[in-house]
Each structure stands twice: as C-alpha cells, then as structure tokens.
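Subject: Protein record for review, amino acid sequence with backbone structure tokens
Category: Structural biology, sequence-to-fold work with a learned token vocabulary.
Format: Residues in single-letter code; tokens as whole numbers, each standing for a residue.
Body of memo: The sequence and its backbone structure tokens, given next.
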Amino acid sequence: MHAPDPHRHTALPHRRVGGLTFPAISLGLWQNFGHATAFDDQRRLVLHAVDRGIFHLDLANNYGPPPGAAEESVGRLLTGDLRAHRDELLVTTKAGYRGWPGPYGEFGSRKSLRASLDASLRRLGVDHVDVYYSHRFDPSTPLTETLGALADAVRSGKARAVGISSYSAARTAQALQVAAQIGLTLSVHQPSYSLLNRWIEQPGPDGRSLLEVCDDAQLAVVAFSPLAQGILSRRYLDGVPADSRAARGGPLRPEWLTPQALAHVRALDELARQSGRTLPRLALSWVLRDPRVTSVLVGARTVDQLDENLAALDDPPLTAAELAAVEAHAVDAGINLWGSRSSDL
C-alpha cells in the first residue's frame, strides 16, 4: 500500500475560482491509460503525480482505449492505494463523445448523460465525482435538456459540481443563461489551449472571447492539450518518431506537421533554450501566464515527462521581451481537433 508524501499539499501552487480549487498543473488520463499500457506503469505515474502535489485527476467515459479503461484503472487505485485519500482528490469525468454503440452512446441527451455517469461511477468504484462535464456542445439536443441532466447529477449527489468542455464563447454564454434559468451553477470550462491553438482568445458574436466569458462568470478554466498533442514536446523537431502519437494513428495526424508549423516549433524551441527552459516548460508557462487559466492538464506518459512538466512551475515568469518574441511564433496550426464537433458549432 502506497503512503503518499506528507508534504504533497504544499508542493504546488493552487488556484481557486468559483468554489473549486485546482493545482496549477493537473493530470489528464486521456491517452496513456488504456489496455495497451501496463497497469503497474499507470499506477506508478498516478501515485507519483499525487506525491508531487497533483490532486486533480481528469477523466472521461471514453478515455482508454477502449472506452472506460482509464476510469477502471483509476477505480483500482481509488479502492486500493488511494482509498484513504479519496476526499483529498478532485476526480472529474465527462460524457458526450462515443462511449458505447448506438444513438445513446454519445452526445448530450438526458438519457445518455445519466447512463454514462452511472457507468463511470461503477468503473471508478465511488458514489460521486467532483466535477461532471458535458464533453461537447450537441446541436441536436436543447441546452435545457443537456444542462438539466447536469442539474440532475448535482441534485442526486452523484456530482459535486458540473461544467462544460469545448463549448464556444457563444455557446458558453447561452449555457450560462440556461443554467441560471434552471437554477444550476456551472463551475468550470475545459477548452483546448496552447501556443499553436489559440481559439479561446478569439472574440465571439458579442465581442467577448471564451476567456472573457468565463472570467465574467467566474468559471474556472482548465486548459487541455497545452503541448498541442505533443507537437510542443520536442519529439517532432526532426521528423515523426515511429513510436509517436502521429505515427500510431492517434488524434494527431502527420499532415498537421507541416513545414510551416514545424518551423514555428523549432523557433519556439530556440527561444526556450535562450530563456533556460525546455520547449514543454515554455509552452506550459505561456498557457499559465494568463490569470484566467486556472489549471493546465498534462498527459504525461512517464514519471520523467511529468517531472519535466512540473518544472515549469519553478521557472520565472516570462518577461515582456520573451512574450513578444514568442508571439511571432504562437500561431494557429489548425490542430483544434474538436472544432468541427463542438467549438465551431
């Protein structure tokens, strides 16, 4: 049985918004917690993260592969090594992308969201999650129904708080209006955000960006893919490694690694070196430079990768001159993988 580090709760800076407290860096369990990764390796990474002060574990019903595998792995830890520490942790999950076959295996209907939450709780071996998200905007389901299902989750005690993920600025504003009408508090938004994916800064129809909408409503912002699906990890500076996400046919497609995009990545790598950082640390520091970003989710594959990401919190803030130099290369590379399925709708 693992004994967590007694100093873990003072190891990282915390940020509190809208009643929720997050570590500045959180652990996302999207791509490295499926059946292809040995459970011992998953266990080692999660327990190391907890020892380092990460108390936010982010999941979804479809994380694996196969769907549900990541929740099953975390469930083993919550009923084993972490059983005595459940209330110290912020365990979050989502529904909206395909979790099982058939028309109710995805999207935002009340039936789908309620069934998915029940299945997630069974896999996790807990009676509630701390945050339950609508994983994407569903144009075929009224927001009153989708958000009503989130309200049901809170009223039933199966979720302590709820949020939305990848909703555009306009859809987030609409969701906030509907939530107010039905007496629901939305607490957090989870969008993608990185040096190469800056859509949350762009003005919506009312002139406000998603960051501004969230700030006005005091929604926590938990940014995912801060390393742009690994493009900002230095793995692709000299081509596509055989064991990389792009080579394995994951969500990062090789055609996105254009000469123009990689030229900007190499320039950012050089700027990182000049400032005494690594490229991943520069990327994380840049996302966290904005006080409206509450936490960033990292999807480390190894303990060493996680430690390098956490080292970004020890780096000094980026100076005005460094930010200006970075700005020339912080350009959209067309890697908002979720845009056509949520944030563009």
In short: Residues 8-341 form a domain with the TIM Barrel fold (CATH 3.20.20.100). The first strand starts at residue 14 and ends at 17. The chain is about 35% helix and 15% strand.
